[in-house]
Amino acid sequence: MGITSSFDLIVVGGGPIGLSTAAEAVARGQRTLVLERHGFFNENNGTSGAERHWRLQYTQEDLFQLTLAARPLWQRLESLAERRLIHSIGSLWFGDVDVDTNEGKISETARVMDKLDVRYEWLRAKEIERRYGFEALPGHFEGFFQPDGGTIDVRGTLAALYGLAQAGGCALHGDERVIELLPGSSGVTVRTDRGTYHGDKVVLANGGSINELLGPLGARLDIKLYEMALVSLRRRDETADFPFWFVFQQPTEEDTNLFYGFGRNPWSPSELVRLGPVFEVHPLSGAAQVTGRPDPRHVERLGSWVGRHLPALDPEPVHTSTCLAVLPGDPERQFHLGSAAGLVPHGENLLLYSSGWGFKFVPLLGRVLVDLAVDGHTEYDISRLSPATPQEADQ
C-alpha cells in the first residue's frame, strides 16, 4: 500500500498526552495527524475516571521543577479553552513521614518545598483529625497541607485539547490502529489498518501499548501495568468535604498499604466522592487484560480503612470500577520521555512518552514533545527521564 498522506508530525495515541502534543504542534504550524486505535474520549487505558490529583510537590526536585513549570501552561490552556480545569481544593499528605513510597516521602518532600519556597502547613495527627474529619489516626502520623493542590477535570481537559487540535487543523483519526512503524533517515513510515502515512517525526503516546510498536524495532521499555480499584462512596454528612488526601503507611506483606481520596468534584452534581488503594500488585501482561472489575480484596481493604478513620463516609461502595496504571519498572524513573535515539535505528525521528502518573504534566509534556520534534531540544530538564537512560537494573 502506498503512502496516502505526509505530515510534519504523526502522534500515535489520542489520550491526554497525544492531544496535548497535537494542540501544541498545530499552534506551531505543524501539519499534524493523530491516530487513536479506539474512539477519542475512550476510557480503555489510563484516562479513566472524572478527576486526577493536581499537586506541586514532589520528593524529586527535578519533577518538582516540572510541576512549577506546568502551572502557567495549565493557566494558558484554561484561558484558551475558556473553562476552568484545575480546582484548588488543597493537597493533604499524612502518615508515616519517613516511609518511602511510590508517591514519594513526606519528610523529604517538605525539605524540597522549603528549598523552593513553596508554601505549606505542617500538621500533627490530632490537627488532621480536627480539620478534616479523620479519626483514630496513629499518634505518630504527621504531614502537610499544600493549598495550591487539588483536582483536575479529566474530561474537561480532554475536550479542551481535542477542540484546540481540531480548530488548528489537526487530522484526528479515531478507530485506526497502527500496525507498524518503519523509521528511516528522512522520517517514519506509519502503517495502519486503514492506510500508510509518512511523518517527519512520530510521537508515541500510546501508554501501555507502546511496546507493541517498539518490540518489532528491537526495543522495549521497562513498564508495568496494573489494574487499580476505583471506589465511589456516599457521604454520611452532606456538609463534609475533603481536600485531596494521600495516606503514607508502612507496606504489608500483601500490598503497599497506600490509600487516597478526593473531595466532592466542584464541577459535578454528584454527591459521591472517589477513593482508591494504590496497590502495585499482580501486574498485567498487557492492556487487553483489563477487566473493569476491581479485586474484591482491594475494595474491602479500602472500606476497612475508611470504616476506621473516616466516619463522614459510608464505607459501603456505591460504585466500583478500575483504572489502568502504566508505571515504570524502576520507580525512581517516574517517566519515559524523550527521543528513541540509541534504542532503534533512526530513533532520532521517534519521540516517546510512556508510564507514570503524568496527568498533572499534560500541557508541559505536549510542549516538550513538540520541542523535541521541531527543535531537537527543550528548555526543560528531562535528562533523567530519557528512554535511552540505562534502567536501574542495568546501572
TrEMBL record:
InterPro entries: FAD-dep_OxRdtase, FAD/NAD-bd_sf, MTOX. It comes from the Bacteria. Transmembrane segments: none annotated. Gene3D superfamilies: D-Amino Acid Oxidase, subunit A, domain 2 (3.30.9.10), FAD/NAD(P)-binding domain (3.50.50.60). Keywords: FAD, Flavoprotein, Oxidoreductase. GO terms for molecular function: flavin adenine dinucleotide binding; sarcosine oxidase activity. This is FAD-dependent oxidoreductase.
